[in-house]
Amino acid sequence: MLVMTVGAAGLLVAGCGGSGNSDSSEAEQRLERGLEEASKGIETAKEEVKKGFDEAEKATKEGLEKGRDEAKKGAEKGKTKAQKAIEKAEKEAREGIERGKEEANKAIEEAEKQAERYGN
Question: Are 44 and 1 in contact (CB under 8 A)?
């Protein structure tokens, strides 16, 4: 945009030729105004681009933090479920051992009763 403005102003100054000092002075003023406007436009565009990059960086950081938090929550949830499953398995194992002991004791008692019946 700046190049086009400078080029157009240059053509105006060079192309108008011969009509006097006031025309070239007016053309120079137009050129200066055009250059100022172009400079302002470029600065504004640079600021907008910088804002865009800053916002993108902020959004990326927020996204990463949210993802990390979600991963932690998922890991904690999985850990809790695994711990509950281990506790349940341990409880069932203890209950199974107790039932096994009871059955073994009953079998021993039954064997002793039969031994008394046939032994005497």
Answer: no
Q: Domain residue spans in the chain?
A: 2-119
Contact 27, 10 (CB under 8 A): no
Which amino acid belongs to residue 29?
Answer: Q
Spatial contact of 12 and 27, defined as CB atoms under 8 Å apart: yes
Any idea what DSSP says for residue 1?
-
Residue found by looking up tokens 């640079």 in the block: 46
pLDDT classification of 18: cutoffs 50, 70, 90: very low
> CA 62 to CA 68: how far, in whole Å?
10
Least confident of 4-13, 24-33, 47-56, 95-104: 4-13
